[in-house]
Structure formats: structure tokens, C-alpha cells
Amino acid sequence: MGGYRGTFYNRGRLTLETLVINQEEVRSLLPMADCITAVREALRALARGEGIQPLRHVMWLPERVGALGIMPGYLSSTGMIGVKTITVFPGNAGTEFDSHQGTVMLFDDEHGRLLAVIDATEVTAIRTAAASAVATDLLARADASVVAILGTGVQAGTHITAMAEVRAVGEFRVWGRDQGRAAQLVESAAGSLEGEIKVVETAAEAVAGADIICTTTASREPVLLGETLEPGMHINAVGSSVPFARELDAAAMAASRMFVDRRESTVNESGDFLMAKEEGAIDDSHIVAEIGEILIGKAGGRSGDDEITLFKSLGLAVEDVAAGTLVYEKALATGAGTSVEIGGARHG
């Protein structure tokens, strides 16, 4: 961890500074390739027992129009304790507001000092796709070159970037219920890609013949059906992180070898998993391994070219801690962020 610049004495009184890092600064300090490396190391450390990852706590508003999530985590390798406090409002789609808003707060593990308050909208957007990239690198076929993106929001965009980091993608297909938003996404992404990117009219058209499928929607009903899957595909399912929503139907879940970021999170929070289990299509043994277990050699990944692999992502606080630490250290090195004085000195 980089040095802490915010301890000084003012007229003999210890004062502490906290670095505030905004959304635009996070975007510049957290390139996808660097975030993929940070997330990979975080998942590896967690699998080795070098982190603490409790279940998140979620408070839902009436009618489930929005939620406040609190996600604590700790990575001993970073020296950071972290908590992401984030609101999720799916109804923000199509407005000027992102569906995910909040902060990642970093505290040191020596005195518990609040070192940084970092915009969580951008951290979440980048680190979620980075986790999918780590899983894709481990599980997708080496020659995978056609990517289907189901969804048109922030995660659709960052997943396009992330997939291009780990595979030589020749074709991206984007589908969403709002074809206008799909077209805007394609236009904004086209200039940064080497391969072709295009809008397709149906989810089935996007999926047919694809090697990698990323489901990034806010749908509560399945958008990826088992009947559309083909041998050799790899799926990153990231849109649903609550028990009452799913993007994959039971047939798709049953047809896939399932890998997760965290078992405990999956069996408590994943609607994709829990609904398929309730319907009798799968049970807890359907979870093959955590991604971190593959990274440390405790478990294997894809075992054949015809296998359909699935990474069910729920998002972990240790990923936020790793990404946030990287942002904080780069901010210290470059002078980014704004320092504010917040308490922490002992009274008396």
C-alpha cells in the first residue's frame, strides 16, 4: 500500500485528512487491464484465506423500487478494510442517473483511519466487468471470438471493454429491449474496438453461434434460455444480484457447469441459482468451484471444448477493496483527489 499523506499537526493538534476521489477521476485512474489484475489477485487471496468477505446487507424500499446495500470486506495484502455503500435503482435506466450510486470507503488496518472516499458508481462498473474478464480468461475457449452482449446499460459497455482485454474478439453483437439505446452503445464503443460491433434484433440472434455471452440486464425474467445454448459457450451472468430476479432460465442453468465468485453469496443471494434450485433443475452441488479456487490450483475449470461454462457473478466487497486500493495509490502518486479533514484523533 502506498504511503499515507494525510497525517499532520496543526498547532500541536493531530489532524487527519481523507482523500475524496470523484467519478471522473476513478475512470482515469482505473483502466480495465489494471483492474482485471487487481480483481484476479483479490479472488486469489480470498481463496487462500487472506481476506474477510461477509454477506452484504440490503435494505429495500417499499415496492422494491430501490435498495441500499452495505458491503464490507478486508484484504490483508492491501492493508485495507473497506465498505461499499451503494444504492441500486433500476428505474434510473434512461435517465441522467446511473442505477448504482454510492461510495467505497477505505480504512487502514493499523489504526482504522479513514483514508479514502471513492465514487462507487465507476468502481462498480469497472470491477464487475473485470471479474467477468478474469472468469472468461479461465473458462472460455482459447479461440473464442464472437461475443453476445445482452443489455444496453453501463455494464454492457464495460463488458465490451473487458472481453476485448482477454480474447481476440472479432465480432460483438448487442441486444437490448430498447434498440435505440443499443445503437447508442454500439456507436460509442465502435471506435475503441478492433473487431466488428453491431446491433441485433433479438436475444436469440445475439446468442446463435456466439462463443461468449454476457447477460447485463436489469430483467427479473430470463433473457437467456437453455434452448438457445450451444456446445462450447461461456456465459457471464452479472445482471441479477438478488434472490427474486434472474436472467437465465432453469434449463440454461442446468445445461451449464457453474462457477461463482463466492459460494456463500450464491446460495443466499442469486436468483438465477435459487429459482432454478426451487424448480428442481439443480442443487447446491451444481456449483463446481469459486473462481479463486481455480486461480490457486485447488479446482479445475473448463474440461472440454464442448462444455458450456457459466460464471455467476454477484460482486464481492474484496473486489471493491482491491480496485479502491489501486485507485487510492494512483491518486497519491498523481496528486488526484481532494483532501478533506475528517476526525479520528483521540479526545483528551
Set out the fold topology:
Blueprint: E1 7-10, E2 13-21, H1 23-29, H2 32-47, E3 51-52, E4 57-60, E5 67-75, E6 80-88, E7 100-108, E8 114-119, H3 120-139, E9 146-150, H4 154-166, E10 171-175, H5 179-190, E11 196-199, H6 203-207, E12 212-215, E13 234-237, H7 250-255, E14 257-260, H8 263-269, H9 271-278, E15 287-290, H10 291-295, E16 309-312, H11 317-334, E17 338-341
Parallel strand pairs: 2-8, 9-10, 9-12, 10-11, 12-13, 13-16, 14-15, 14-16
Antiparallel strand pairs: 1-2, 2-17, 3-5, 4-5, 5-6, 6-7, 7-8
Helix pairs in contact: 1-3, 2-3, 2-11, 3-4, 3-11
Describe this protein's structure.
- The chain is an alpha/beta fold.
- It has 2 domains: 7-123 and 318-341, 2-Layer Sandwich (ornithine cyclodeaminase, domain 1); 128-316, NAD(P)-binding Rossmann-like Domain (Rossmann fold, 3-Layer(aba) Sandwich).
- 34% of the residues lie in helices and 26% in strands.
- The chain has 11 helices and 17 strands.
- Strands 1, 2, 3, 4, 5, 6, 7, 8 and 17 form a 9-stranded mixed beta sheet that branches.
- Strand 1 and strand 2 form a beta hairpin.
- Helix 2 (32-47) crosses helix 11.
- The longest helix is centred in the middle third of the chain and has 20 residues, at 120-139.
- It is globular and about 65 Å long.
- Mean pLDDT is 93; it is low at 1-5 and 7-14.
Q: How many domain modules?
A: 2
Shape estimate:
globular
CATH superfamily of the largest domain: NAD(P)-binding Rossmann-like Domain
From N to C, what is the helix and strand string? EEHHEEEEEEHEHEHEHEEHEHHEHEHE
CATH structural architecture of the largest domain = 3-Layer(aba) Sandwich
Report low-confidence residues grouped into runs of 5 or more. Answer: 1-5, 7-14
How many H/I helices? 11
Largest sheet: 9 strands, mixed
Q: State the helicity in percent bands.
A: 25-40%
* SS elements, strand count: 17
Q: What portion of the residues fall into strands of 2 or more residues? A: 25-35%
> What is the CATH third-level topology name of the largest domain?
Rossmann fold
Structure class: alpha/beta
Provide the residue-averaged pLDDT. 93
Regarding CATH, which class of the largest domain?
Alpha Beta
How much is the radius of gyration in Å? 20 Å
Q: What gap, in angstroms, lies between the N and C termini?
A: 31 Å
